[in-house]
Specification:
The chain has 114 residues and is of the alpha+beta class. It has one domain: RutC-like (60s Ribosomal Protein L30, Chain: A), CATH 3.30.1330.40. 25% of the residues lie in helices and 36% in strands. The chain is built from two helices and six strands, in the order E-E-E-H-E-H-E-E. It has a six-stranded mixed β-sheet with strand order 1-2-3-6-4-5, covered by helices on one side. Helix 1 packs parallel to helix 2. It is globular and about 40 Å long. The protein starts with a strand and ends with a strand.
Length: 114
């Protein structure tokens, strides 16, 4: 099977497709300081990557959500719940952790099928 890398950088690819599976790198956005705003922007990035591969959020298999502060869990979930395809929610974990830069509040990694 071939490997198709999307937006390849020196350190990582934003996504890698192998067979019928798409592996997304952790997506972040710091265009707004709000957790909900960052989550919405990250989810738009995920939509765009999935579209690039001819996939859709309804084909998500799993997601890992990293948040800098667990007290913002409900705020992040407000964006997630408005976005996730009803009846097609992936397996998901949410983890509180220090992210790569202090301005990042949310990072989401995902795996999807084509």
């Amino acid at each position: 099977m071939s490997i198709d890398r999307h937006e390849v950088g020196a350190r990582l690819s934003q996504a890698v497709k192998h067979g019928d599976t798409i592996y997304l790198a952790g997506q972040v956005d710091d265009s707004t300081p709000s957790v909900k705003g960052q989550a919405e922007a990250v989810l738009k990035k995920i939509d765009a990557i999935l579209k690039h591969y001819g996939s859709h959020k309804s084909k998500l298999l799993s997601a890992t959500v990293y948040i800098a502060d667990m007290s913002t869990f409900d705020e992040m979930n407000a964006a997630w719940d408005a976005w996730v395809e009803k009846g097609s929610a992936p397996a998901r974990a949410t983890v509180e952790t220090k992210l790569a830069r202090p301005q990042f509040k949310v990072e989401i990694m995902a795996i999807a099928s084509v």
